[in-house]
Design a protein that fits this description.
The longest helix has 10 residues, at 55-64. The protein has helices at residues 4-11, 35-41, 55-64, 79-88, 99-108; strands at residues 14-15, 28-31, 47-50, 68-71, 92-94, 112-113. The relative contact order is 0.25. The protein contains five helices and six strands; from the N terminus they run αββαβαβαβαβ. It has one domain (4-113): 3-Layer(aba) Sandwich (Udp-n-acetylmuramoylalanyl-d-glutamate--2,6- Diaminopimelate Ligase, Chain: A, domain 1). The model has no long low-confidence stretch (mean pLDDT 92). The protein has 119 residues and is of the alpha/beta class. It has a six-stranded mixed β-sheet with strand order 1-5-4-3-2-6, with helices on both faces. Helix 3 (55-64) runs parallel beside helix 4.
């Protein structure tokens, strides 16, 4: 399984907030823009891919203890969101890829998706 640092380098992700310390091996990823769906399906220590970039994303990511949130599709978090993510230890990354392309690249690196009730 790839390490978070390898994924960042290989996929040329921009680091928006400090990297989370601790477990960095990535086995699974979740892609969703619906926060309730993420809360129901996203296990801890995975990646979360979303176009959402507001404070509630930071709250959900912190609650679930995800390794990183990868923002796709162009939206940029404002400074308040970046400060909050830094304060609570949520790593925010940014990709120039679409969610679809990013998921394909992650799959090729050995990261698998999560299905509801199977994590």
């Amino acid at each position: 399984m790839p390490r978070l640092e390898e994924i960042i380098q290989h996929l040329e992700l921009a680091i928006l907030t400090p990297l989370k310390t601790g477990m960095t091996e990535i086995r699974e990823a979740c892609v969703s823009d619906l926060l309730s769906n993420v809360m129901a399906t996203c296990p801890g220590h995975c990646l979360w891919i979303t176009v959402q970039c507001h404070a509630n994303v930071v709250g959900v990511a912190s609650l679930l203890d995800v390794q990183a949130v990868i923002l796709v599709g162009g939206p940029k978090p404002d400074q308040a969101v970046l400060r909050k993510a830094t304060e609570v230890g949520v790593t925010l990354l940014e990709s120039r890829d679409s969610a679809f392309n990013l998921c394909g690249k992650l799959y090729n690196l050995g990261v698998r998706g999560v299905l509801r009730g199977q994590s």
